[in-house]
Amino acid sequence: MTPTMLRRAAGMSRAAYEPDDALMTAGAIKFENKRTSTVAYLLRQERQQWLIWRGTDGSIKDWIYNLAIIPIRLRGGSWIHGGFYLAHRSLWSDIKKELEPDQPLMVIGHSLGGALAETTVIRLKNAKREGFKKQFTQINMIAFGKPNLFFRFQRRKNAELSFAGFKTHLSVVNSSDLVARIPRFGYRPALNQTQLWFGPDNDIINPTTAVKREHWNLSSSLRDHRMEGYCSRMKEFCESPLVATLSSKMRE
Q1: How many other C-beta atoms can be found within 10 angstroms of the C-beta atom of residue 247?
Q2: Which domains does the chain have, with CATH numbers?
Q3: DSSP characters for 108-164?
Q4: Interatomic CA distance for residues 174 and 135, integer angstroms
Q5: Does the predicted model carry a pTM greater than 0.70?
Q6: Are 105 and 139 contacting, i.e. CB atoms less than 8 angstroms apart?
Q7: Which end of the chain is more exposed for a tag (fewer CB within 10 A), N or C?
């Protein structure tokens, strides 16, 4: 995972909130379901597929799906947040028609978009079951400030994302980001993700629970969720020595 890829992921996740020109002038295909207010873009760039999911944009429809916390069981066995699944399903059949299993796929998103990115990876765990003729050769995922997707009370293996072809599972969190901590009851993040933590004074890879609690600041909880802040912190991180440690860990 190179600094260029990390900066690009942050920039594209922010661009998903901007007018369509931000991504479509670069050649992206837009997918939108007005009923669910779900939006995604697919951009092919330098032999790489970028699937960019937009997060919550303030629409009441987005919040209906954010708050629909009844879990749904997928065919592969995982129980996930029902609202996020329904939002994802509203675009998935159209997106699948455009994806190429032989090309590397980077799935990204911020906030709700991060949860939808993670849902994409779950569904591609068995690509043939999703209608593809073959499995994807390389999938990477980077999410910024994503909420918890996996139902807490299920078998451990169903709350993990590990399969051939899935290379990177990176969750980036700005330390006091409230959204990255919810839903708090009944849900949890993927058990085997790598977390890049932007702390108030330094950046940490896979921080302990004690560190997360220490860094929590209610007054910063909404400000820390903004994608602009993630972009600024990612730029700083990519210029630090720690980026080499993260890249090495991603290759393990």
Answers
A1: 14
A2: 3-250 (3.40.50.1820)
A3: EEETHHHHHHHHHHHHHTTGGGGT-SS--S-EEEEEESPPP-EESSS-GGGG----T
A4: 33
A5: yes
A6: yes
A7: C
